[in-house]
Amino acid sequence: MPGETGDGEFQNGRRSRNVETLRDEGEYFVHVKQFQKAIESFTKALEMSTGDKNCLVTRSKCWLQLGNAENALTDAEEALREDKDFIRGLYQKAEALYQLGDFETALVFFHRGHKLRPELQELRMGIQKSEEAINNSIGVPESVKLQASGDLSYFFKHEEEEKKKQKELAQQAFSAKSKTSYSDSKAKQSKGTYQKPGAKKETKKERERPKSGGDSKTIKQLLGELYGDKEYLEKLMKDKSLTGEKSPMERDIKHKVYDGLEYLNSRADFWRQQKPMYARKRDKEKSRRSAKQQSRDPRSYILRSLDEIEEDQSEGKYEQSLKKAQKVLKQVEGMSSDELQNRAEIMATLYSSIGNAYLEMNNFNRSMEYHERDLELSREHDLEDAKSRALDNLGRVYARKGSFQKAIDVWCEKIPMSKSPLESAWLFHEIGRCHLELNQYVDARDNGRKALEAAKEAEDDTWKLHASVLVAQSEVKNGELQAAASSFEESLQIAKDLEDNVAEQAIKKALDEVNGKIVRGEGDDEDEDTDKKIEQRPGTAGSAKIESRPGSTEETKGDNNYADDFEEEKEEQKTEETKEKEQEVAE
């Protein structure tokens, strides 16, 4: 029936949105290096969309980060089941094999991927490090030393027979020649006779001095703190008064020094195999070439710099990221659109990165300047994702400055660009918080309810908690005490499900105060204690979640820990417990 068909399409559409939300959430966790949570998100997404090769490859990457190469290999092989030439799957399988120590097979898959996409630097590096690991594992022919040991009686027997023949020849020469020639013949005989090794006085072969493979800089990086020990032993070895051959003690010290150096050289070889440096060293030298080489391929250099800037900001290195972004921006501004493809998009991204760095450094005016440049450039070139990102960041700057109405206006313009329920939940919540700050309680309540619906659609309990608390606070301020009590009860249940004890205690106290007002027949008054205990300032609450939205390229720091909102409540509880104990002691 038509109705059933429509319901099926709706369910399929909703399922696809849920998969997209879980995938975005997983990507966010990967970005902030919470790999176990990322695995959980991708696993849920794969339960809804079996065989999603992108989810499988990213989960494989997470397994590798956690040291589980076996599971990483399983996911990579599953991603290649339908598409044998899936380049990300080939690369991930090769990496998993390399981590498992199967360097030969890893080399095969690195080569297979390189044949399909020869321009990818990761595959070239994979080939180089696999070849180096193989060489370090099997060694080189020059390192094999043959020794004359074991049962050599066969050779000695053959030697005795040869000696006997030489003796007979010597006797014949003696009878044929004079005494003077006899001496010459004797000399020739002794010279041509094959001597038994044991016939001469046995001389002990001197032990060779250990030699380290590679230059000193590479060895230093491989050994780390042990490199100081290596330098000390080498210095000790040059001191002939301690490592000479004059006394047994000196020889013993010399052998001990050799043992230590051989051990350190073997450790360096082992770490070179586990973490090859040749490929990275060569690529690093290439990346540090002159500006002439950079000008030949400026796009790869700029994109690599953008990745470094994003990584610095994710690690909280805002000043460092700011300097890099300003340097790259200066270079991009000096290039034309013909020289650099997507120049406008790259400049907008740099404006955004600089604005975020200034925001986290509390320089709001400079942050506003660059986010406005980002927005202006995005509108000029019709870059929807960049425009959404710029509006998002501008709203956060206004909220942090206390310009709540401007923040509302900016975020309201962004609402139609929302690409996921999770993003909508955050937007409505922040708009509601701004209305609450402006004492616009009805608007705050309405936006809180919209945030709650979006959070339920996204199936995100954390944002359900934020939204339900906002609704309850707005209802209390608006004098809707019965509705506020119901909202607080819903918030309390969510806090229990999340096992957030601090939030649970604060909500319980707020609920008790609302119920007390209902019993006393009170309406809304000027008491703001309930709101103060669980209030979050707009532009900060849960803002780290924004990264999971499509179109947002920066990680946004904020007070994401809900426990911060209840710190005052905890202190009050401790004070009350202390008073009760003092009262008991007094009695």
Estimated share of beta-strand residues: under 5%
Q: In the CATH hierarchy, what is the class of one domain?
A: Mainly Alpha
| SS-based class | mainly alpha
Would you tell me which CATH topology of one domain applies? Serine Threonine Protein Phosphatase 5, Tetratricopeptide repeat
How do the strands and helices of this protein lay out in sequence?
Blueprint: H1 2-31, H2 35-48, H3 53-65, H4 69-79, H5 87-99, H6 103-116, H7 121-138, H8 153-176, H9 179-192, H10 216-223, H11 227-238, H12 240-243, H13 248-274, H14 278-287, H15 291-296, H16 298-314, H17 318-333, H18 343-360, H19 364-380, H20 384-401, H21 404-414, H22 421-437, H23 441-458, H24 461-477, H25 481-498, H26 501-520, H27 529-534, H28 567-586
Helix pairs in contact: 1-2, 2-3, 3-4, 3-5, 4-5, 5-6, 5-7, 6-7, 7-13, 7-14, 8-9, 11-13, 16-17, 16-18, 17-18, 18-19, 18-20, 19-20, 20-21, 21-22, 22-23, 22-24, 23-24, 24-25, 25-26
